[in-house]
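Reminder to self: tokens first, then the designed residues, so the page reads top to bottom the way the pipeline ran.
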């Protein structure tokens, strides 16, 4: 997974201000909380840490997180971690939390959801490895922000001999009808976050 940049940028945009990378490691200015030991959480955290640098990290499968008085950003990986109670003065950045939507009024003024998806080239190679005979893939999505991603995915899948059927949904109520319309027309389906 590749999340270089977005989390740092979103922390600044969400009001966390500039963050000293050295201070984050020694003083708990930035705290990461993982819901469990699941591989997607571990991989996403490693990508975050690679882009940002060392941070204080807690894994809910092993311990309760300690939020320090100087903590200004909490980055969570997974729904369980996102839904924990945190101080309102810290910016919450949450990812890999399918179905979780935290509104500003739910937990203080600053909560930002980050969607993490694999790079299009990684997605293409892994799906092709899972299903070598794949020739047509449907990608269903409904967020305007994913349009560029779908364009990149089309290019990567083209090089592997896979045609992409891109379907933008008006809303989640449109999903069932679109799935029925694709029956027998594609070999696999990928739903964007």
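Designed residues (193 positions):
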């Amino acid at each position: 997974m590749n999340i270089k940049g977005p989390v740092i940028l979103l922390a600044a945009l969400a009001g966390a201000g500039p963050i000293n990378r050295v201070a984050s490691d020694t003083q708990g200015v930035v705290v990461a909380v993982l819901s469990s030991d699941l591989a997607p959480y571990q991989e996403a955290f490693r990508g975050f840490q690679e882009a940002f640098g060392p941070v204080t990290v807690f894994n809910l499968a092993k311990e309760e997180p300690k939020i320090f008085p100087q903590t200004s950003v909490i980055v969570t990986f997974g729904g369980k971690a996102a839904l924990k109670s945190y101080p309102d003065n810290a910016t919450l950045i949450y990812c890999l939390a399918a179905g979780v939507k935290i509104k500003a009024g739910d937990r203080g003024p600053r909560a930002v959801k980050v969607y993490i998806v694999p790079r299009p080239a990684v997605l293409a190679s892994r799906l092709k490895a899972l299903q070598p005979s794949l020739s047509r893939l449907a990608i269903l999505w409904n967020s305007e922000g994913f349009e560029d991603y779908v364009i990149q995915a089309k290019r990567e899948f083209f090089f592997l001999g896979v045609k992409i059927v891109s379907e933008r949904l008006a809303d989640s109520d449109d999903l069932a009808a679109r799935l029925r319309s694709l029956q027998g027309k594609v070999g696999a389906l990928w739903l964007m976050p």
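The longest strand covers residues 136-141.
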